Amino acid sequence: MREWWIHVGLICIPLVAVYLHIPPPQLSPALQKWHSAGEVFHFRGKKVFYRDSYGALGSSDVVILLHGFPTSSYDWNKIWEPLIQRFHRVIALDFLGFGFSDKPRPHRYSIFEQASVVEALVAHLGLSNQRVNLISHDYGDTVALELLYRSDQNRTGHLTFNSLCLSNGGLFPETHYPRLLQTLLKDSTILAPILTRLTNYVIFQKGIGEVFGPYTQPTDAEFWDMWTGLRYNDGNLVLDSILQYINQRLQHRDRWVGALTSTFVPLHMIYGPLDPVNPHPQFIRLYQQLVQRSTITVLDEHISHYPQLEDPTGFLNAYFNFIHSF
Q1: Domains of the chain: which residue ranges?
Q2: pLDDT by residue (tens digit) across 103-150?
Q3: What does UniProt give as the signal peptide span (predicted)?
Q4: How far is CA 244 from the centre of its chain?
Q5: Class of the CATH domain delimited by 28-324
């Protein structure tokens, strides 16, 4: 019996070693097209991917899109063209550690650094004196709140907000329920390096699928594009470092929730109510209670954590109604 297990071990060890060094998947034609349409700029020696599309003639309006965890700027692909038809410039970036941007390791990823990345991109594009509209999702919501704090405090290099539209972000630690794998990765210094290497497409697909509604699941191709963006530049190996943002939300709650509740910038929340991460009705009730200056759109009951992908038409209608209201 002992010899049998030895043989199994000798077979498994090289197989696991090979698995852990599987190269990232090739970009699909759709993802390659997105990548080819983008550019990079350098932030503190790191490459940051972004897209900057010119659109509506006769408009000077600029909108900047901030994506969520663990995906990328490609999250906005379904609403990109309609936004170009409305805005003079539509801009999106991949945060450090995400998508086509550099994914340094070891590295102390933080919401503060990502906010500085956005400010640096705005300066790079010559928009420092331009009033900008922000649309954010999930992780991007917290980056947006740090940018809002800096703007309201008149910090050097801050953005000048015209408006802010949030969507399904864990703004309040008390109503945020991260997935089990996220909790293990952010809190376990022993397990995290193992789990990041063992994370595979099947695990990823199951985890992402759980935060989409049952009738709005991504296609196989869309799941694969999300996974490809994560694996690009070995992004799976920095998940545990990036996930410290959950702890940062708790540590800096007063700063970020305070900015949200005290600002006079026009605010809107687009919310998919089937979200298991920010569940209904706890999340939206607390938002209504604390952020009384904000308007809110609650989408259909089957829309979950990724409203811009699950219901792009509903998302756009809500956003355009908001942007035309002031």
Answers
A1: 28-324
A2: 999 999 999 999 999 999 999 999 999 999 999 999 999 999 999 999
A3: none
A4: 14
A5: alpha beta
